[in-house]
Amino acid sequence: MKKITILLSSFLFLLAACAPKGPTTLTVMTHDSFAISEDVVKAFEDANNVKVSFLQSGDAGAVLNQAILTKDAPLADVLFGVDNTFLSRALDADIFEVYQSPALSDVPAEFVLDETYRALPVDYGDVCINYDKNYFAENNLAVPASFEDLAKPEYNGLLAVENPSTSSPGLAFMLATRAYFGDGFLDYWQSLKDNGVVVVDGWETAYYTNFSASSGKGPQPMVVSYASSPAAEVFFASPPPAESPTASIVASGMCFRQIEFVGILKNGENRDLAEKFVDFMLSKQFQEDMPLNTFVYPVNQTAALPEVFTQHAQVTDQPAVMSYDEIAANRDAWIEAWTEVMK
User: Fold this and answer.
1) Ordered structural domains, the chain, with CATH
2) Which pairing describes strands 24-30 and 78-83: parallel, antiparallel, or unpaired?
């Protein structure tokens, strides 16, 4: 009897050992604006016997702060959403593992800002001034063609911008003015202030409350937003119009290019799966799904854009240029000086 019991126990042990294991959980920390289609995520999960859990942790700055504070015992395996305005801070904090994904072969070198391959580019978008086409047509007013134009009397009170200390696009726009005017950028902001520029805390308020084209009631026909916003206006309208009611001012130097990055967090538990997920984020399948979820552009040059992007979104040929090292060294001082001028 004892022998049978031992044999039965051995059989049950072997059976348990050979039974298929449940999926491993891979945790991806992101900002609150991240979105991807469920079927795309499921394709990765099925192919790798994994469950992907997205940990949304506030805006990009808040996500990075949390990752730095918990780097010895990370809350996730992968972090997505650090952009080029915060990149040097992430690299200096040494929160990422080195990983040179083979999928980078389809990504142009202009997007690979981190030559140590700790933070890999995933998407980009241009922060630009958007304008209400109808307002300018009905008032027989020319659309501003330069930063200098915005300070002219005919555009008094017509521009809404976001505070760079509380808003990512607000910071991007301020950096564009710094790149364009150099040390004179604060004098330029004084001229905008004198010309009635309206400053609000965040993009949602600027776009949905102040902007005349979106709400139909806002007092400002110009707003700092994204060059992809005109495509979003068409995509989300019911029925979609043949032409977007908005457009972007994409003159040389007037747009700031934001690039978002992904990295594998140090001390994570699932390095192999983390590498596969980074590869997946750079794959054509993932890259082609992003535009209509988050209205950004893919960095994978083989990824096709949706028709609404090709017809209604704009990309500047000459975005504002500033290294992430220069941003890191001066960002806080520039914001403080800007705040002093605009208070």
Assistant:
1) 2-123+259-304 (3.40.190.10), 125-256+314-342 (3.40.190.10)
2) parallel
Give pLDDT, residue 3.
55
How many Å apart are CA 168 and CA 62, to the nearest integer? 11
Chain centre distance of CA 63: 12
10 Å CB burial of residue 35 (0-12, 13-18, 19+) is middle
pLDDT digits (tens, 9 = 90+) for 85-111: 889 999 999 999 999 999 999 999 999
Q: Tell me the two tokens of residue 142.
A: 């020319």
Q: Name residues of the chain where pLDDT drops below 50.
A: 7-8, 10-19
Helices marked H in the chain — which ranges? 2-18, 38-48, 60-69, 87-92, 133-138, 147-150, 168-181, 185-194, 203-205, 212-215, 229-235, 271-281, 284-289, 291-294, 307-312, 324-342
113 neighbors 121 (Cβ within 8 angstroms): yes
Using only the alpha carbons of the chain, give its radius of gyration. Answer: 24
Find, among 181, 131, 134, 172, the residue nearest to 155 by Cα: 131
| Percent of the chain whose predicted confidence (pLDDT) is above 90 | 84
Return the pLDDT at 1.
55
